[in-house]
Amino acid sequence: MTHTVSHRNIHQGRNLKRFRELLGLKQDAMAIQLGKDWNQQKVSLLEQKERIDSDILEQVAAILKIPAEAIRNFDEDQAVNIISNTFDKVENSFNFGTFNLHPIDKLMQLHEEKIALYERMLKEKDEMMGRLERLIGDK
Exposed, middle or buried: residue 91 (CB in 10 Å: 0-12, 13-18, 19+)? Predict the structure, then answer.
């Protein structure tokens, strides 16, 4: 399956911010890891850029331990679309195993079993009565 990436709405700085926040890294901490020329304000400005220079993008991707392509190509609308479509497919194909979705059928089955048990009990009662009558009649 081939995916084509549309660069029209991809804001690399916003993507960088999302990934950084998802990973729980503060701007100050990222600035420290980027080096002495960096501070929190500079990271904030970087996250406001629509396009990030390739060498800096590679550095921040390495700090976040994610592929640089994830920051370059992440499209929120497309991701939400994929997630919602996947959720619908998973929800519709969920296997309930042996869960009985027809309680009326189960009630009918239990009722039939109850009737069969009652008929067996009546038969046994009749057999016992017959034995008792034979015992009484023999005396």
Answer: exposed
0.90 cut: is pTM over it?
A: no
User: What is the distance between the alpha carbons of residues 13 and 11, in angstroms, rounded to a whole number?
Assistant: 6
80-133 pLDDT, tens digit per residue, is 666 666 665 544 545 555 555 567 877 888 889 999 999 999 999 999 999 988
| Residue 93 DSSP class | T
Which residues have a Cβ under 8 Å from the Cβ of 19 and sit 6 or more positions away? 64, 66, 70, 71, 74
- Token digits of residue 118: 């009652």
Q: Please say whether the beta carbons of 50 and 13 come within 8 A.
A: yes
DSSP, res 37: T
User: 18-56: per-residue pLDDT in tens?
Assistant: 889 988 999 999 999 999 999 999 999 999 999 999 999
Name residue 27's amino acid.
Answer: Q
Cβ contacts of 25 within 8 Å, gap of 6 or more: 63, 64
